[in-house]
Design brief:
It contains 19 helices and 22 strands. By secondary structure, the protein is an alpha+beta fold. Among the domains are: about 190 residues, Heat Shock Protein 90 (2-Layer Sandwich); about 110 residues, 2-Layer Sandwich (Ribosomal Protein S5, domain 2); about 100 residues, 2-Layer Sandwich (Ribosomal Protein S8, Chain: A, domain 1), CATH 3.30.1370. α2 runs parallel beside α7 and α14 packs across α16.
């Protein structure tokens, strides 16, 4: 065959510095919000206590950051605008334990390659401020500035019009800038921030504590509907607020997680949060949260993503378990008391469900005590008084026709109790109060010290049974069901390694998996509870979980799904008439049950109408 005409051999050549910087800018400068993030991080690293941000046209025309930090010395201004020049790290050891937000030393150079950038700074202790424009080639010139640094970026992508075409509308770009601004401000409540756009102040945040800053940015409603997390264990600490499952919504953008003050979207933390909320969220609802994880900087690698929004943990399993248990136990706090004390059930109360061993108190988990309950669960810390006299009275009460009514159908009017009903429960009453009646055989009406309590009796009973089934399962070894014929399947090297590394854990979880040959695994037994499923698919999913997290939440989820189905079929059905003692027994068991605020499907089990709410409804006092 004739030889194809030879093509000239491509030659390798060095790229010009400007092109190198613009390539790097493609990773750092995605849009104006990316520039704002980098400049804000530099201002915080400088030790600023007050930062002002001024934007024009969504940050495309102008981004100006003014801070009161340590400033930059005159002789360092030109160097600050070159690539890979920084004062934050100087060795590999510094990189392995980064404590600053910025550390790569390329942000200013990248921005300067695609926009007009100038620096004005007065170093702490210096007599003068100096200004330098990027690419001017001139020496710094004197400037007027009291302290700190002013970084000004104008006309983003003025020299790369093709990239500018990819920017969105002014409103969209500003919304991205505002979101980055809020993330930075949330993580640094001790710094005052001001954001203005086109001459108008959009957000002004004075120095505050963490709760005040969260309230200012995420709103009063979020804080009022959230539960507090504040747990420390060894080198890990977690603090912040998580939404009560009852108030979760469809929105996915109200989740803020920070690692050592840096906003991140981490798969390990995200998985732990999803697992913690697994059986308390209804449908596709998402939890709003604002959580801050503190960890040894040497135990986390922040140099794995161009925008530094992803991290890698040295011990991902420990972080996953810590976050999962902190959030799960906060959500699992029983209604009865924040101190872990349990009120005694009334002597005259006929148990609707056999009384099981008392659940383990979660208040001992943290030295800070059990997390507070949301505001719609009142009366925490109250002890139940002796109420046999009240129950005896209530049980004997019968509906009577309201006075002034006669004629046909008078005896079928709405029920009420005869005169002599005991007064409103005092502050010593239990959180869910005492039952008054049933509504259409579906809801229990009760009164507590604050007002009216409404309970979905089927949903509440379903959660009680579900939690007891889980507790019973935890207190005994998981029984195994041997397969008549071992299921042999091909396995990847990582799956084989997971079997060898986690053999004991697999046995504890009810599995018998062993090596059957090169690249083959044999599954000889599965948990009895899961024997109806596809054994190979279950084994593969379990091994995948063990590879990523070292502990399988998948098996727990499958078991919980089965237990939830059993609880649903065993719970008291709607339209069943309950006696007052039975209703009160259900209320007391709810108060002692973890996660009693939601059923197994995430629906709320009870709510409260305070007397103030009822007064407003009927315009009393107006």
């Amino acid at each position: 065959m004739p030889e194809s005409p030879s093509r000239p051999l491509p030659r390798i050549h060095a790229l010009p510095d400007l092109l190198i910087s613009q390539i790097a800018a493609g990773e750092v400068v995605e849009r104006p919000a990316s520039v704002l993030k980098e400049l804000l991080e530099n201002a915080l690293d400088a030790g600023s206590t007050a930062i002002q941000v001024h934007l024009e046209e969504g940050g495309v025309k102008l981004i100006r950051i003014t801070d009161d930090g340590c400033g930059i010395a005159r002789e360092d201004l030109a160097l600050a605008l070159t690539r890979h020049a920084t004062s934050k790290i100087g060795s590999l050891a510094d990189l392995e334990g980064v404590t600053s937000l910025g550390f790569r030393g390329e942000a200013l150079a990248s921005v300067a390659s695609v926009a007009r950038l100038s620096l004005t700074s007065r170093a702490r202790g210096s007599d003068h401020a100096w200004k330098l424009g990027a690419g001017s080639g001139a020496e710094p010139e004197p400037a007027a500035l009291m302290a700190g640094t002013v970084v000004e970026m104008r006309d983003l992508y003025y020299n790369t019009p093709a990239r500018r075409k990819f920017l969105k509308s002014e409103g969209t770009e500003f919304s991205h800038c505002a979101e980055y601004f809020k993330r930075i401000a949330l993580a640094h409540p001790d710094v005052a921030f001001t954001l203005t756009h086109n001459g108008r102040t959009s957000l002004q945040l004075p120095r505050a504590n963490l709760e005040q800053r969260i309230r200012a940015i995420l709103g009063e409603e979020f804080v009022g509907q959230a539960r507090s997390v504040n747990v420390a264990a060894g080198p890990l600490a977690l603090a912040g607020l998580i939404i009560d499952p009852t108030w979760a919504s469809q929105a996915k953008d109200a989740q803020y997680t920070f690692v050592n003050g840096r906003f991140v979207r981490d798969k390990v933390i995200g998985h732990a949060l999803r697992e913690a909320y697994r059986d308390v969220l209804h449908g596709s609802r998402q939890p709003s949260l604002c959580l801050f994880l503190a960890i040894d900087p040497c135990a986390v690698d922040v140099n794995v993503h161009p925008a530094k929004t992803e991290v890698r943990f040295r011990d991902a399993r420990a972080v996953h378990q810590f976050v999962f248990h902190c959030v799960q136990r906060t959500l699992a706090t029983a209604i009865h008391s924040a101190t872990g004390e349990t009120g005694a059930a009334p002597a005259a109360s006929a148990a609707l469900i056999p009384t099981p061993p008392a659940p383990v108190s979660l208040a001992r988990y943290s030295s800070h005590g059990s997390p507070p309950m949301p505001r719609h669960q009142p009366g925490l810390g109250m002890q139940e008084p002796a109420t046999s006299a009240y129950l005896a009275f209530a049980q004997s009460a019968r509906p009577v026709a309201p006075s002034g009514l006669s004629g046909p159908g008078a005896g079928q009017t709405s029920p009420r109790f005869s005169p002599g009903l005991p007064p409103v429960p005092s502050d010593s009453a239990p959180p869910l109060g005492y039952a008054l009646a049933q509504l259409h055989g579906i809801y229990i009406l009760a009164q507590n010290a604050r007002g009216l309590v409404l309970v979905d009796m089927h949903a509440a009973h379903e959660r009680i049974l579900y939690e007891r089934l889980k507790t019973a399962l935890e207190q005994r070894q998981i029984s195994r069901q041997a397969l008549l014929i071992p299921a042999v399947f091909s396995a990847q090297p990582l799956e084989v390694a997971a079997v060898e590394e986690h053999g004991e854990a697999l046995t504890d979880l009810g599995f018998d998996i062993s090596l059957a040959g090169p690249g083959l695994l044999a599954l000889r037994a599965v948990p009895s509870l899961l024997q109806a499923g596809d054994p190979i698919a279950l084994a593969r999913a379990l091994l995948a979980e063990l590879q990523e997290h070292g502990f399988s939440q998948l098996v727990t989820a499958r078991q919980n799904e089965l237990l939830a189905t059993m609880a649903c079929h065993g719970a008291v059905r709607a339209r069943r008439q309950l006696s007052l003692p039975e209703m009160n027994a259900l209320l007391r068991q709810m108060e002692d049950t973890e996660r009693a605020g939601q059923c197994n499907h995430g629906r709320p089990t009870w709510t409260e109408l305070a007397l103030e709410d009822l007064d407003n409804l009927f315009l009393r006092g107006r």
